[in-house]
Write a structure and sequence with these properties.
Elements lengths: L1 E7 L3 E6 L4 H7 L17 E6 L2 E2 L5 E2 L6 E3 L4 E2 L3 E4 L12 E14 L2 E7 L13 E5 L7 E4 L8 E7 L5 H12 L2 E8 L12 E6 L3 H13 L6 E7 L8 H10 L3 E7 L2 H5 L4 H13 L7 E5 L2 H13 L7 E2 L2 H4 L6
Parallel strand pairs: 1-8, 15-16, 15-18, 16-17, 18-19
Antiparallel strand pairs: 1-2, 3-6, 3-8, 4-5, 4-7, 9-10, 9-14, 10-13, 11-12, 11-14
Helix pairs in contact: 6-7
């Protein structure tokens, strides 16, 4: 007989038969528990029994009235069970890490966009997925500062693109700190608009400004893993000089047959009026080049208004909602724009 197991506080659920332990059933569906039995360390898999009845290693049946503390590597369910356990990772989830990186490079690329290269410490590389972002933890600054990772995973160096126009005081503070410091504290990974494996579908990437950093990570990951389906980047900016890595993307298009690049730039009148018309032009360009979007995965990085307008236009053209990815959807609702 099989029972439903619920893990709090993250709400993960899985099925466990009465003949297997909670940890055996969880690991079968790629749930990772904090456990170190093989290293001779016990008690790490301790959890709190909130609801249900379980069988202990000695064959005793217990409920929350009998005990709160259980070990998931020993117990088996006799009813549906709810437990509380910190540090459990669901399928595809990565652990959050905070660590110090050496600052290797801070150089202006173009249009007040700075390329920052950080070097991870020696030892095992910290895990993140292509398309995720990190936080820089600056001393004497309470709030974390978030930036998309512009490099692919599994490399010692982490690349960031930071736009620090003269009127962007906080961004300027970050750049000045990085220019004058030897190291910086980093926290990662963040973000769900990412790739944990190479997809079988063709991929469209839509970016505004330094949203290109996220797309660069995805592009390098896909091409580095032999992706041979269509990979199209649509990159928009208010003026051409804001396309700060244009030579880089043109070189990619020259070297890879499946890579296609299109840039969308506002006209002079729009620049003078601070218009965001180029955002709507982005979706128009995608639709002009792709009549049917039902077979694509789409990643979008830009302002909330741009992201939601692109989502509406592309889904009207057949894109499946579950194949539209943007971190904006996680922190800005439609009624906030």
């Amino acid at each position: 007989m099989s029972y439903s197991i619920t893990l709090e506080p993250n709400g993960l659920q899985f099925e466990c038969s009465e003949s297997e332990t909670l940890i055996e059933a969880g690991q079968r569906v790629d749930i990772r528990f904090p456990v170190s039995c093989r290293n001779g360390v016990c008690h790490i898999c301790r959890a709190e029994l909130i609801q249900g009845r379980i069988e202990t290693r000695t064959g005793e049946l217990v409920s929350p009235n009998d005990t709160n503390e259980i070990y998931v590597c020993h117990v088996k369910p006799h009813t549906d069970v709810t437990i509380y356990m910190d540090g459990v990772l669901g399928p595809g989830e990565l652990p959050m890490n905070t660590f110090s990186c050496q600052i290797k490079q801070v150089s202006e690329m173009q249009a007040h966009v700075y390329k920052v290269v950080l070097e991870q410490p020696a030892g095992k590389l910290k895990e993140f997925y292509a398309g995720q972002y990190l936080a820089l933890l600056l001393p004497e600054r309470e709030d974390e500062t978030y930036f998309s990772i512009a490099s692919a995973p599994n490399q010692r160096e982490i690349e960031l693109h930071i736009q620090a126009d003269p009127h962007l005081e906080k961004a300027l503070e970050v750049v000045q700190f990085l220019q004058t410091s030897a190291s910086v504290q980093v926290k990662l990974p963040f973000g769900k608009a990412c790739l944990s494996s190479v997809p079988s579908e063709p991929v469209l990437l839509l970016a505004a400004g330094t949203g290109f950093a996220q797309m660069k990570s995805l592009i390098e990951y896909l091409l580095g893993n032999g992706f041979d389906k269509e990979l199209s980047l649509y990159w928009t900016a208010r003026k051409e000089s804001d396309l700060y890595a244009l030579d880089y993307v043109k070189d990619l298009e020259d070297r890879y047959e499946n890579v296609h690049i299109q840039t969308i730039v506002a006209d002079d009148d729009q620049v003078q009026s601070q218009s965001t018309q180029h955002h709507s032009l982005l979706a128009d360009a995608v639709l002009e080049g792709h009549g049917d979007l039902s077979r694509f995965k789409v990643f979008v990085a830009g302002s909330p208004r741009m992201v939601y307008s692109a989502m509406d236009a592309l889904e009207d053209a057949g894109l499946e909602h579950e194949n539209f990815y943007s971190d904006v959807l996680e922190y800005v609702s439609r009624d906030q724009i």
